[in-house]
Amino acid sequence: MKTVALISGGKDSCFNMMCCVAEGHEILALANLRPGKGSNEELDSYMFQTVGHTAIDLYAEAMGLPLYVQTITGTSLATGKDYIPQEGDEVEDLYKLLQAVKDDMDIEGVSVGAIQSDYQRVRVENVCQRLGLVVLSFLWRRDQEELLREMISCGVKAKIIKVAAMGLKPDKHLGLELSEILPHMLEMRSKYGLNVCGEGGEYETFVFDCPLFQQRISIDKMEPVIHSKDAFAPVGYLTLKSCSLQSKPEPQGNMSLKEQVLSLPLLTSSNYLERMNQAGLLTNQQADGEGPDLLLPSNEGGGDLELPRVFMCVPDVPLTGSEPPVFRCDKKMFQVSGVRAIVGKDVDVATATESAMITLKECLGNHSLAMEDIVSISLYVGNMSNYATINSIYNRFYEINPPVRVCVEANLPRNVVLQMDCQGYVKSDIGAEGGHTSHTVGRQVLHVQALSHWAPANIGPYSQALMVDGKLYMAGIVPLVPATLQPVEGGIGVQSLLALTHVQSVMSAIAPNCRLSYCPLVTCYIIRPEYTEICHKQWEKALKTSMTDSDQLLDKQSRMNPCIQYVQVSALPKASLVEWHVLAWPELQDYEISEVRQAKHCENHCIQAVAQRSVDNPTFFSCHITVEVTNFESLQRAEKVNLPGHMVDMFCRVWHQSFPLVTNRIAETIPLVKIFFSPTIYDFNLLHKYFAKAVATSCSSHDMPEPVLSLVPVSGLGSRKQILAWCQ
């Protein structure tokens, strides 16, 4: 895409331009923010590097590109984790700068050299979202030692022009080049925990040559300035007094600029998988038994191989869209299910979607709650071709930091465009045990919108992860190459493991010590039943990779054993073959986990249940129940009708066994329940009635509150015999 590059003169913004070129983006212009005339060269800015700005004009000339400049008139006013536009904030100077570029040039993307700073990322993404621009941030969350070595190997020539950290001395380190400072920074990382790339403000640089430069910048005269004589961490910088341009040899051959950059040893989307292979994260899938017949989606209907091959077309149901959602709220959490968008005469997809979103908003409003109180939404669409339309309506109901979301195509009745369920937290109780009373303080959100090499940006109005009350809620993750947001090629094995790698990357970004083994229940959505075995192999591989040495030493009884539910659906976002969805308990290492297992074997069916809970924190509870039919031919209608009741009764029993000394506080923590079923076995309307009756009867007899159920019709479940799955 046509791109403007935000530059400070430093190595990071320069190298990110090279990464943009490698990905096929075209740099049309440069943009820089600088102090006003008469101001200090080095401003105390949270956002922008200003030291070295006097030579930026030559920087643009060296690249042969136009330079747009904006004077920094604002200051750092809105300094919280999130950013809401505020007049007088320096971020609004960035908005004016990019607006000016966009008015002059047909740009689509913005190159940004951020590596680790969420503060900068959030603000740049806010500005770009308002302007309809895509952020290109290919250095984001890269390993800093690897990244600095890569810059050096790729010919980025830069001098240290500012130091401001313990272990760095102005008289010794100013003026050094990257290759000279690297060994010292590795030593200081070990000694003081410094960032190798200077991402914590330890040092700043000025690039005088790189493969993108048509001419080389010669720094003819520079003057040191001591800003602070602190005995432990003195601060000093270089003023570039005189610089000039020098000619460079013409590149050999007739290679384009992109070809020249691609010949360098930098990370690109094309060698992304190769590097993951070298790191041991991906392996040759043919060795794992995957054949070429498993590389493409199937057009066949049906998911249970022992059932008749029936095209999953569920007939219309007598719904108008005015049916009230199911709502439950306790002192801390709330759950909602049964929000549906119904099409009909004069009601199209957009209108039905908007009506459903309004229904959800009004349902919450009736209980003094708001859309921003939701932490997690499950969105089931009847046809994935409506994904863009649904997203455009959905997006209107959120301004910043939307909840996490999983989205799959379900076998909904033909007149149902979408079905939603959600859960969230009551404002006054968020983080109450930690002493917080503020809604915004109690939740931590990861909402990355930039293209990078880290993990996929959100492809809809949702956040990747949200942590609240000690629980980490995650969006559904599909196997996209982060730099392109296209599904990775190579089949289900590669896709499954790549998506799991993304899951771990997202978890680590918001909760550094969290691992896959901290997930009590995992849902794996696949589009073909034969993918189950391969995905399970890749899960076991990823789980082992994510474990620490101390995890490996624990026996299975001493650590949590994640339950996995495989669900076959007809389509996934971006035509992916697999989507992984997890909930994690990041504080698991601080808790003792108790597990309850029960099974009920009957003549024609078997019900199995696993419940996991924290002995120390009763709000940490998860339950997984499955119903498998051992003999379809002998399964009687009466038995089918009674199975939901048996399932609910099993839940009540494991609940009471998990909490033998149940209190009112514990009884109020029942999480939302998702029940996956095949419409070839159960009628959509009748199953709702069966479960409603079963919940009312069983919960009353067991003296416990009724959980909120969300019934989801799908193509198939984890095995050929599985017909119902309770996921909580």
TrEMBL record:
What is the protein's species of origin? Elysia crispata
> Hey, which pathway is this one from?
Protein modification; peptidyl-diphthamide biosynthesis
| Protein's UniProt name | Diphthine--ammonia ligase
Q: Which Pfam families match?
A: Diphthami_syn_2 (PF01902), Ribonuc_L-PSP (PF01042)
Xref: InterPro entries: Diphthami_syn_dom, DPH6/MJ0570, Rossmann-like_a/b/a_fold, RutC-like_sf, YjgF/YER057c/UK114
Instruction: Pinpoint the Diphthamide synthase domain residues.
Output: 1-232
What is this enzyme's catalytic activity, as reactions?
Answer: diphthine-[translation elongation factor 2] + NH4(+) + ATP = diphthamide-[translation elongation factor 2] + AMP + diphosphate + H(+)
Q: According to its UniProt record, which protein family does this protein belong to?
A: Belongs to the Diphthine--ammonia ligase family.
Q: Which UniProt keywords apply?
A: ATP-binding, Ligase, Nucleotide-binding
EC number of this enzyme: 6.3.1.14
Q: Which biological process annotations from GO are given for this protein?
A: protein histidyl modification to diphthamide
Taxon lineage: Eukaryota, Metazoa, Spiralia, Lophotrochozoa, Mollusca
**Molecular function per GO:** ATP binding; diphthine-ammonia ligase activity
Stretch forming the signal peptide: none
